[in-house]
Amino acid sequence: MSSLIRQVDPYEPIEQMIKIAIGAFSVLLLGLSLSAYKKTSLKNILYAAIAFGLFAVQMFFEYLGDTVEALDRPFNDVIFSGITLAILGLFFLAIVRRK
Amino acid sequence: MVDEGSQQPDGTPTDKILQYIRENPGCHLRKVKEELKLAMGTAQYQLERLEKAGRISSTRRGLYRHYFPAGMLDNEKDILKILSQETAREILMFIIEQGGPSHSEISAKIAISPASVNWHIRRLIELDLIYEEKDGKYKRYLLRGEAKPVIALLKSYYPTVWDKWSNRLAEMFLSLSRGEKS
Asked: Is the pTM of this model over 0.90?
């Protein structure tokens, strides 16, 4: 039934495209922040880099959850919320921590 | 001072290339080939020969390999790293233009936080590119050594888009960590 709903959902392609764009941007930002960290050795940038990396991981798992039915488990939402919290925590650390 | 390359401007391709690199440190293969109107294979072969003979050195950045006369600057590679950063370039250019600006003058001109200026100046001093001099209650920053090779490097070594973006990200975090002291 759920797969039938998925087939007729007209917004799914748009959602997938947005998710791919989010994934691509987070990988780009991960690369940029690693490059900035290499130049400056500022720990704050490393926190931001890990946050961007987690963003990419989250998008990847969301994509897997959507496409591979065996991976679509109820506790996935807990994992995704946990990752979102970790991302926000890392950004917070990147802003407030001094060298 | 007459150097080996400039004695024979119309000499062999090796001499021409060597002279061109001395005049344009940081140039890359395509530029050498086009400016000296050489075949790609010839330019490539001669550059490899010169590098093996220790007369030039090179460093790869992105798609291009940049060539320098051997021993032009002691710490070329570190300097190149600095020059790939927009802000450091601007600070260095301002110091060359003004010949001894103070910290606040640099900060006002470049329009970045004093913490960022501090950080860049500290790195430029560590690399021996500039030095500081006390002038009353101010510190003034001056270029160490000749301006010519540094200007040549600045002219021929542009930061890539990737460098520019990652530098902007770094600047953002540098201005956030304003509590750091030099």
From this structure: no
